[in-house]
Amino acid sequence: MSRQPKNSRLAGLIRVYDWWAYKIPPMMLMLYLLAWMGNCTMVRTAVVSLFALLMLCVGAVYTSLINDAADREEDISAGKKNTLSTLSPQRRRMLLIVASAAALVCCGLVYRFAGLQAFLFYALAYLCNTLYSLRPIRLKRFPFVGILADAGGEQMFPTLFIAALAQYFFLPGGDAKLVILTAVWSLSFGLRNILYHQCRDLEQDRKIGASTLPIRYGLTNMRQLGWFFIWVELLAWAALLTVTGAWFLVMGVAMYLPYLLRLKKLGVSIVPIVAPTAGPYHVLNGELYQVFLPSVLLMALLMHGYAFLALMLVHAALFWGGFFRVYRMSLLYPLLHRARRKLGLRI
């Protein structure tokens, strides 16, 4: 077996490719929205964003490590990748101890600096992820409760933490309607995410005798369930626009629709949950939450001061993967490719 580069091995251990570009931007979307509502300065927004990112990353690393540790034997039996299993037992224990200590420290920091509501949501995310993975409870064994725990721990509660954090610093007093709608939207999105992974791992899960919803009810029912969650997400967003008054976010949807048409023209399948067995595919609303809506919000923040241009550039640099995917599928890519060939330039 060839050795992985150190950075690739570390990325595999913490499974950064599974959460950084896909799960974090939709959470930051809520922070930018509340910063716009609170008419905040760029410095205040940037400091809170940095704190939020640090807390989210520690939580994601902790979740990845305990999940891989708990699933190690099953992943090996099913033929799934589990980088943690390549380490010695001593190193595995040390990593888990460090991740757990970092999680406790972050919980303390949130309680100290971000208020009780943000702390409760942040702690509930850890609780759900821990109960989902670790024995003897291991909620992952139970199809319905398991997907709720995963969606709550990996998407809903972290997003609610971000909303509570932003309310604490940007909009003291808060708004219960905003919290409820954020919970509905992020839970639907999180349920789609876990069901997407379960559908993708269907055959591997069958090898180890797992009892997931796709195995129990089949892919046809999962497709129908996926469209149901899509409508719930869209209705929740429409209600959020009404509550916040951020109707300019419709521009993000208007920009996303031509992108979908472009994907269809290129032969990319548009799916809510179940990926096709062959050919390229796009999970619906992915880039909408990861690229288009955050971009529109950051442009709206420019109206509060041109200093927000720095935040926009930092966001694009941190989450460049989503922007690059959109660029690769846009009409601009073939145009620049042809220009490169004609002029002999590297673009």
Major sheet attributes: 2 strands, parallel
Shape: globular
CATH architectural group of the domain at 7-246: Orthogonal Bundle
Structural class: mainly alpha
Report the radius of gyration as a whole number of Å. 21 Å
State the order of secondary-structure elements, H for helix, E for strand. Answer: HHHHHHHHHHHEEHHHH
Major sheet: arrangement of strands:
1-2
The averaged pLDDT comes out at: 91
**Beta strand %:** under 5%
Number of E-type strands? 2
Q: Termini distance? A: 35 Å
- What's the level 1 CATH class of the domain at 7-246? Mainly Alpha
Looking at the structure, the CATH topology of the domain at 7-246 is: Farnesyl Diphosphate Synthase
Helix tally equals 15
Low-pLDDT parts are 1-7
- The percent of residues in helical segments reads over 70%
Polypeptide structure, described:
With 347 residues, the chain is mainly α. The chain has a domain at 7-246: Orthogonal Bundle (Farnesyl Diphosphate Synthase). 77% of the residues lie in helices and 2% in strands. It has a two-stranded parallel sheet. Helix 2 crosses helix 7, helix 3 runs antiparallel to helix 5 and helix 5 (89-114) packs antiparallel against helix 6. 37% of the residues are buried.
Structural topology:
Elements lengths: L5 H9 L1 H22 L4 H29 L1 H7 L10 H26 L1 H18 L9 H28 L5 H25 L1 H6 L5 H32 L5 H16 L3 E3 L9 E3 L2 H16 L6 H11 L1 H10 L2 H12 L4
Parallel strand pairs: 1-2
Helix pairs in contact: 2-3, 2-7, 2-12, 3-5, 3-6, 3-7, 5-6, 6-7, 7-8, 8-10, 11-12, 12-13
